[in-house]
């Protein structure tokens, strides 16, 4: 495997070449943002570097896409009683309790209770809470979809499915080719009316897959206060993540 680098639009693009018995020169941008070129042994290096340069715009676009959906680094948590965690727009204190029965997380009377066999096992506690958040996210996001979808149904939008993923730089994404709305799992920490805004925003992309005047006209007509909801997400929710 050969490592090389080119410069495109004042950006350095690193890539690796794998020599294989293939007829064509093939270029792949992987989800971890590494760039791989496969080519026959007879293809000159100069030809390959020129080929990569010709694909520079496409490469940067795809690297940018994968960068946006990279797992978000979580702030260091100890997952001990007294720590606060945000859920649907409010802060709740965690109560960790030892159990000999099934390990679980429950929300009750303003507290998040974690029942775990080893109260010192930080990674296990983190996994339990993450699973709880994802379970709540899947349920809440689908409830929001049921609420928001009728607003766009009359415009011929087919009802999409919901998938949940931890993302770095966006709250949601409309995967039109898969008829799916991808939502950031961190969105479960926002108020429900903010979740509704993100879901509607992505649903409108199935009608206008851009941020054109038509897109915003439709958003304003269906949710006149969307800017206030977005401001809460950007100013109040993000800072606590």
From TrEMBL:
This is Hydrolase. One of its GO terms (molecular function) is hydrolase activity. The keyword Coiled coil does not apply. InterPro entries: UTP_pyrophosphatase-like, YgjP-like_metallopeptidase. Residues 23-235 form the YgjP-like metallopeptidase domain. Keywords: Hydrolase.
